[in-house]
Specification:
single chain; 6-stranded mixed sheet; 4-stranded antiparallel sheet; 10 strands; elongated
């Protein structure tokens, strides 16, 4: 039984077409998923940046003494089923005291979103915490996903010479 060369070429072309359609579908859906996740992370980072500005302004203009003010964040526990991290960082390459919120996926740091924290220079100096630590019942530092105990916090400290407002992201301890 002889198979003409046209049938072989046609079969190979048909298989190539099916494979290329499958790859195209995969590439397009991956791009759309990445874009959707990036948009969700952007919303999260903008929301957190807004809350940081609000809590810093409340601490700067209030007479809270040396107490810690907190504001609970309502963040999703994941982004499209993926765990994410939210952190504060300072960009030392641009303007001094340029603070940003960065949100990114744990599994793929390239899927991220960054939002500027628009803090104005006021009467008091503001220091945003970029490292991890503990303050009262708050463990601060990068936040893994959301939860009902995720907060932004601020503490105003006055001395005879200076007045400083510290702020950051954190989680309240179970008892807090």
């Amino acid at each position: 039984m002889e198979v003409p060369i046209q049938h072989i070429i046609g079969t190979i072309a048909l298989m190539g077409l099916v494979i290329s359609i499958g790859l195209s579908y995969t590439i397009i859906t991956d791009f759309l998923q990445t874009d959707t996740r990036r948009q969700q992370l952007q919303e999260i980072s903008e929301n957190v940046a807004l809350h940081v500005v609000e809590i810093v302004n409340l601490a700067n203009f209030g007479n809270s003494g040396s107490g810690v003010m907190t504001c609970t964040l309502n963040l999703p526990s994941d982004v499209a089923g993926k765990t994410y991290i939210v952190e504060i960082f300072e960009d030392g390459t641009s303007l001094p005291n340029s603070w940003y919120i960065n949100a990114y996926l744990v599994t793929n740091h390239n899927i991220n979103a960054t939002s500027l924290i628009p803090l104005r220079a006021g009467q008091s100096k503001t220091q945003l915490e970029t490292t991890s630590g503990t303050l009262a019942e708050i463990t601060y530092g990068p936040i893994y996903g959301g939860g009902n105990n995720t907060v932004v916090w601020a503490q105003k400290t006055k001395t005879e010479e200076t007045e400083i407002t510290r702020a950051g992201l954190g989680r309240l301890s179970a008892g807090g």
